């Protein structure tokens, strides 16, 4: 996309509702647009005063219209609205430009449900603590409702009777109200309620018996830590700074830096969305990725007890990475010199909700060379020749979502050598359960740590997994692309050659969707390659980009019979390719809450749509098994996982070749 019609957020707010046709087609909905959506729905009688909105997000125009858009001819601005009604959830498409409701229909009961409303979350807390069975169970433990903090958690879908008849279930364990910063230090183990947030009623309270509540508050603020152990001596800080100011520009929602430009927005479900990612090749801007964003997150716990087996969260589709964006802290989350930007989403009532400092953008020197070479043969005693090289600077676009006890950093990192990293940083607090054991020498320890680790007295952290799927829609110079894999395979070694083992790179075309998914395997190296088949580079190569690597973790889960994994079959393989379908945005399906797995990436590929010379989408998963340890407590060090994307015969040479040498002038000052 070109920049002339990209308007700043302030301009957008001042001109609405008349300006809809002038906004960038993929910009996020503004505060004024959210107000306009609300008004249109009310004026048309579609909604009433009691209506709540689990999700309002941009209804993207067809890709062809986006790519053809110019300042004077913009597609209508539209929104997809999921909302409550007396009969259940409905979904409407609102044309903001025209002030009309284009469609309005009930969401089928068997399709799954929209994400959790904050109002439902709070209602579950209040409802559970008022129930007589919960009051009695707390009393057995010497607690009153005022001394309990309860945490509603999505209950998954196990295809049993309790999930039918319009039920919208959460299971609600509790903790003793904290004395300090740590809300999770004192779990009330063996006790939880089942709450139907649709009917606003407690389905039952399960109490498997009293287990000792930990006594240590385990706060993690500096004052709380210093009261426990001495702090380290003060040190000279190693800081990042940029005295001359940023080298990037932000024009409305377009970021322009070095050889990169892209558009950004925030949606309530995936969080940060990047679109129109272009790279500068010489003097020409070339498209690389039409759009990429977080697609789904799956966090299943491995404890089979009644209070834990159902903890199989779809953190993006059930809760929302955009909804739970937290303000970023300068000097901790991002460098002091970063540019901080707000995010705009809608609250439960459809009103605009601004999250301050939800995005930070910054450049940093990583202290490594982008490239270097020291030429030993150029050296003489009289004239030593230093290494030739260039320092690397990267651009980081970062958000942090706090979903329950975990904090997830999501980074999009752009490099001067033309590569990208999608980074996930997991930090926050382990989910812990109460235990009788205070040491591994206790007689109860072996049984209590069968599915987790005793990390402190009376605290066991359960084993679990973290999986993150990203949708990456390559449009290399154009929407029509090809996809293949580059396989590292044994080469045939000629007879008589002293070498007996060699390999070669073999291109394997992917003709259709059933050929397009695979596992990363160090014993069978393979990379996904997307190319533009309609043009050739200077040496005759089809220009391409490659998903080079991703941090993954597999296990032989039962994807045929185990409900959580039937709902999240996308974790079975790390790399997927599908034909472009604008309705297929999330690997876990459109309605994740209590979904049945029928609308997921793993099911879409069964259509086996052709992928030759078509508009296609790649999907890539990063993940890890988390075996907790004492060092995770009371707060985890940030654990990073990455997905690496790089050009493959797209540029005619190393694009980092043209980075300036910061010491060139001083090295040549004698000339």
From TrEMBL:
Tell me the domain of life. Answer: Bacteria
Q: What class of enzyme is it?
A: oxidoreductase
Asked if the Swiss-Prot or TrEMBL record annotates the protein with the keyword Flavoprotein, the reply is: no
Q: Which SUPFAM superfamilies match?
A: Amine oxidase catalytic domain, Amine oxidase N-terminal region
Q: Which residues form the Copper amine oxidase N3-terminal domain?
A: 114-214
Q: Which residues form the AGAO-like N2 domain?
A: 32-104
Enzyme Commission numbers on file:
1.4.3.-
Q: Name one Pfam family in it.
A: AGAO-like_N2
Domain Copper amine oxidase catalytic per the UniProt entry, residue ranges: 240-657
Q: Which InterPro entries match?
A: AGAO-like_N2, Cu_Am_Ox_Cu-bd, Cu_amine_oxidase, Cu_amine_oxidase_C, Cu_amine_oxidase_C_sf, Cu_amine_oxidase_N-reg, Cu_amine_oxidase_N3
Keywords in alphabetical order: Copper, Metal-binding, Oxidoreductase, Signal, TPQ
Transmembrane stretches, start-end: none
Q: Which PROSITE patterns match?
A: COPPER_AMINE_OXID_2
Q: Does the keyword Metal-binding apply?
A: yes
Q: Which cofactor does it need?
A: Cu cation
Give the note describing cofactor binding and stoichiometry: Contains 1 topaquinone per subunit.
What does the entry report about post-translational modification of this chain?
Answer: Topaquinone (TPQ) is generated by copper-dependent autoxidation of a specific tyrosyl residue.
- Signal peptide positions (record): 1-23
Q: Family assignment?
A: Belongs to the copper/topaquinone oxidase family.
Which protein is depicted? Amine oxidase
Please give the organism.
Answer: Paragemmobacter amnigenus
């Amino acid at each position: 996309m070109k920049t002339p019609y990209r308007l700043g957020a302030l301009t957008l707010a001042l001109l609405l509702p008349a300006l809809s046709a002038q906004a960038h087609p993929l910009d996020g909905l503004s505060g004024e647009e959210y107000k306009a959506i609300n008004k249109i729905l009310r004026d048309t009688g579609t909604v009433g005063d009691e209506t709540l909105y689990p999700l309002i997000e941009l209804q993207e125009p067809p890709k062809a219209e986006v790519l053809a858009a110019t300042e004077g001819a913009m597609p209508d601005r539209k929104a997809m609205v999921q909302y409550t009604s007396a009969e259940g959830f409905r979904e409407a498409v609102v044309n903001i430009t025209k002030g009309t409701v284009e469609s309005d229909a009930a969401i089928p009961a068997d399709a799954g449900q929209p994400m959790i409303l904050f109002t439902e979350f709070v209602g579950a807390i209040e409802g559970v603590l008022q129930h007589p069975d919960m009051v009695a169970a707390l009393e057995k433990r010497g607690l009153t409702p005022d001394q309990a903090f309860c945490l509603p958690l999505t209950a998954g879908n196990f295809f049993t009777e309790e999930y039918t008849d319009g039920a919208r279930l959460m299971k609600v364990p509790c903790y003793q109200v904290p004395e300090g910063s740590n809300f999770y230090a004192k779990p009330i183990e063996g006790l939880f309620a089942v709450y139907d947030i649709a009917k606003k009623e407690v389905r039952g309270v399960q109490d498997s018996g009293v287990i000792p509540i930990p006594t240590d508050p385990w706060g993690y603020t500096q004052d709380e830590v210093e009261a426990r152990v001495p702090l380290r001596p003060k040190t000279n800080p190693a800081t990042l700074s940029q005295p001359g100011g940023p080298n990037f520009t932000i024009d409305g929602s377009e970021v322009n830096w070095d050889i990169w430009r892209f558009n950004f927005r925030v949606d309530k479900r995936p969080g940060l969305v990047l679109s129109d990612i272009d790279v500068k090749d010489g003097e020409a801007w070339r498209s690389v990725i039409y759009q990429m964003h977080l697609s789904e997150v799956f966090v299943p716990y491995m404890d089979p007890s009644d209070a834990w087996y159902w903890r199989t969260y779809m953190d993006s589709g059930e809760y929302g990475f955009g909804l739970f964006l937290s303000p970023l802290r300068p000097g901790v989350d991002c460098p002091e010199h970063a540019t901080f930007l707000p995010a705009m989403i809608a609250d439960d009532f459809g009103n605009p909700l601004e999250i301050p400092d939800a995005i930070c953008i910054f450049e940093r020197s990583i202290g490594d060379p982008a490239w270097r070479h020291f030429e030993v043969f150029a050296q003489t005693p009289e004239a030593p020749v230093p290494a030739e090289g260039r320092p690397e600077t990267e651009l980081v676009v970062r958000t942090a979502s706090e979903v329950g006890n975990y904090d997830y950093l999501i980074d999009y990192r752009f490099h001067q050598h033309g590569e990208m990293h999608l980074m996930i940083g997991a930090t926050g607090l382990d989910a812990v359960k109460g235990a009788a054991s205070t040491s591994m020498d206790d007689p109860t320890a072996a049984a209590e740590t069968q599915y987790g680790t005793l990390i402190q007295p009376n605290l066991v952290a359960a084993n679990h997994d973290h999986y993150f799927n990203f949708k990456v829609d390559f449009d290399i110079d154009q929407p029509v692309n090809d996809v293949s894999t580059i396989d590292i395979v044994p080469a045939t070694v000629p007879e008589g050659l002293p070498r007996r083992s060699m390999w070669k790179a073999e291109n394997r075309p992917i003709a259709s969707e059933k050929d397009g998914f695979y596992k990363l395997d160090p014993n069978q190296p393979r990379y996904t390659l997307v190319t533009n088949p309609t043009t050739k580079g200077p040496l005759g190569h089809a220009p391409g980009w490659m998903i080079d690597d991703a941090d993954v973790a597999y296990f032989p889960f039962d994807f045929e019979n185990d409900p959580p994994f039937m709902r999240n079959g996308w974790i079975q393989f790390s790399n997927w390719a599908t034909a472009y379908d604008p309705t297929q945005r999330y690997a876990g399906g459109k309605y994740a809450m209590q979904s049945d797995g029928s609308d997921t990436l793993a099911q879409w590929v069964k259509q086996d749509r052709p992928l030759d010379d078509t508009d296609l989408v790649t999907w890539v998963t990063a993940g890890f098994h988390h075996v907790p340890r004492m060092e995770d407590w009371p707060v985890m060090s940030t654990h990073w996982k990455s997905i690496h994307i790089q050009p493959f015969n797209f540029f005619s040479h190393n694009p980092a070749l043209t980075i300036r040498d910061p010491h060139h002038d001083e090295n040549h000052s004698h000339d």
